[in-house]
Amino acid sequence: MSARPPRSFEDLAVGEYRQSAPRRVSREEILAFARQWDPQWFHADPEAAQGSVFGEVVASGIHVLALWRQMDHEINGDIDFVCGVGWDELRLKRAVRAGDAIHVTSRIEALRPSRSGQPRGTAITRYAVVLSDGPLAGTECVSFLSTNLVYTREGRQGSGCEG
User: Fold this and answer.
1) What ranges do the domains of the chain cover?
2) Candidates 3.20.20.70, 3.10.129.10, 3.40.50.1000, 2.30.110.10; CATH matching 9-157
């Protein structure tokens, strides 16, 4: 079992910005993910995808979000989250293609103590999956606001996502 993350709600600050290391996305992983989880022809069939608007296979949006989740743990895995409760303003802005290097950015937009008196707070974080290199470096592929409950120091003894 892993150790509990050390940072609680009181340790977070509005404006806090973090960025992951880049990760290159391979054609093989795009195809493997698509064939198992999102078998649309322009994700899973290289020959057919040549006739798509993309001209080649591209990563499924669900795949890009799974990659985001992995990279978010790299940069925010030290936060003692209770759970996520929602995403807003989710936009799939640019396809992720084989060979693209991507990274994740996060910026805390708002912090609100619990209105119910529970020992946790709400953190609203703006996330983006961004191209890391090449002529389009800095281009956002996916962006969204994530609402998460975070344990306070007092709440680190409890658990649960109710209320």
Assistant:
1) 9-157
2) 3.10.129.10
